[in-house]
Amino acid sequence: MADGIMSKAATMEIPINGNGDTGTLAEDDGLEQATKLQWRLDEKDLHQVMVSGPNLNETNIVSGGYGGTAEGIIPTGSIKGPGVRRSASSSSMAAEEATRGVAVEKLETVKKWGLNTYKCTKQMISERFGRGARTVDLDLEAQIELLRDTKRKYESVLRLARALTNHFYNMVQTQHALGDTFADLSQKSPELRDEFGYNAETQKLLCKNGETLLGAINFFVSSINTLVNKTMEDTLMTIKMYENARLEFDAYRSDLEELSLGPRDAAAVARIDAAQRQYQVQKDKYERLRSDVTVKLKFLEENKVKVMHKQLLLFHNAISAYFAGNQQQLEQTLKQFNIKLKPPGADKPSWLEEQ
Q1: pLDDT tens digit string along 297-347?
Q2: Of 233, 274, 295, 347, whose CA is between 20 and 30 Å from 243?
Q3: How many CA atoms lie within 13 A of 308 on its CB side?
């Protein structure tokens, strides 16, 4: 309808007066109304497109013009504004700050370790050449040296007891084989049947008593091994920590003494205060470990006496009963110390384990 009106208005003739002015026509009002109606329709269509049209964030921009290939399509939703860049930049800066914080912390740790190592090495060299003062607890040092000497001697007992076990085990195995051989010859030699039979019985009895004695010796070896390589070793580890703490304590004490002899300006006073705090920390650590060592040495001595009293009594009674040929006393000794022997063949793997 609007197109028809506009077409009609465009084809009207406009009469001209003699002086060149346009005349007053009846169709002028119709033309003006048609123009206003066309503008209203255009505004209404534009408003409808703005309201119901596609979302600009969901449209595509075609780089190749209308009808172009799909390769030139750029989704407008993928275009990031300044706010997105600012967010990514902030997260990147936060990650960088966290990484820098970790690096600084590690650097401080390495710095403290290096300073502590330098001080301790300096103190150790000074003590070795007789120039540095060393904190000494004479009573505790004597107990520590006694423990180390005792451990060396007990290690020797343990080594010899293991050697005795190996040799005696081989002897028992030889007696077992000899007894089987005598028994076989007793069946095949009628003229010497009794003689071979007596010897076979004797070797079997010795073999049985030997296995009983081996059970007692193995129990003795196991107990000594626990005492030496676990109980004593644990105490020696605490002693090692105590000796390291003593070295650090003396190192920081010497450092504080050197600073105290120097000038007393503002920077020197600050260094003295820091050295005083470090000295107190090392002193508390040294005294705590010294107390721990004293307690452990006391309990170790009590435990050692109790364990060795039992084990030495077992070893003596078992050896005496075996070489006296007293089978009943030998078995009674094992019962007294709650030692259970493994049945014959218990050490051998089963047929399933051998597969």
Answers
A1: 999 999 999 999 999 999 999 999 999 988 899 999 999 888 887 655 554
A2: 274
A3: 12
CA distances (Å), 298 to each of 119, 141, 246, 304, 329, in order? 33, 14, 20, 10, 36
Query: pTM of the entire structure?
Result: 0.63
DSSP 78: G
Identify the residue whose tokens are 């030495």: 312
Q: Name which of 15, 63, 11, 59 is nearest 34 in CA terms.
A: 11
Q: Pick left, alpha or beta for residue 67 (phi over 0 → left; psi -120 to 50 → alpha; otherwise beta).
A: left
Helices assigned H by DSSP within the chain: 2-10, 27-52, 82-128, 138-188, 193-226, 233-260, 266-323, 327-336, 351-354
b/e sequence 246-281, b meaning 16+ C-beta within 10 Å: bbbbbbbbbbbeebeeeeeeeeeeeeeeebeebbee
Q: Which two tokens stand for residue 31?
A: 């033309």
The dihedral through the CA atoms of 256, 258, 261, 262 has a sign that is: negative
In sign, the C-alpha dihedral spanning 66, 67, 68, 72 is positive
The Cα–Cα gap between 13 and 27 comes to 10
Give the Å distances, CA to CA, from 7 to 1, 3, 12, 35, 116. 10, 6, 9, 11, 101
Q: What is the pLDDT of residues 226-241, one digit of tens each?
A: 999 999 999 999 999 9
DSSP code of residue 349: P
By the 10 Å C-beta count (0-12 exposed, 13-18 middle, 19+ buried), 86 is classed as exposed
Smallest CA-to-CA distance from 162 within 231, 224, 228 is with 224
